[in-house]
Amino acid sequence: MKRTKLYGNRAERGQYGETKSRVTLTVTQSAIDMLDQMAKEVDLNRSELVEQIARGMLEIKGGQLSRQQAAK
């Protein structure tokens, strides 16, 4: 039986059907503060915020976050 490695409290293979990879980003402290504030506004952690922006699930317009409607 294949076991899925745990990452934190969740299995690595999650809602997106693939494992996540660790990456390192270099940004200013101001950018970190802004990411943290945006993540807090939508009740996500920083990693999930970036994931959802990359997948087009969240969009930033004029410094404001908005959730995208699911395609029908």
UniProtKB/TrEMBL annotation:
Record domain Ribbon-helix-helix protein CopG: where: 22-55
One Pfam family, short name: RHH_1
GO terms under biological process: regulation of DNA-templated transcription
Protein name: Ribbon-helix-helix protein CopG domain-containing protein
Originating organism: Limnospira indica PCC 8005
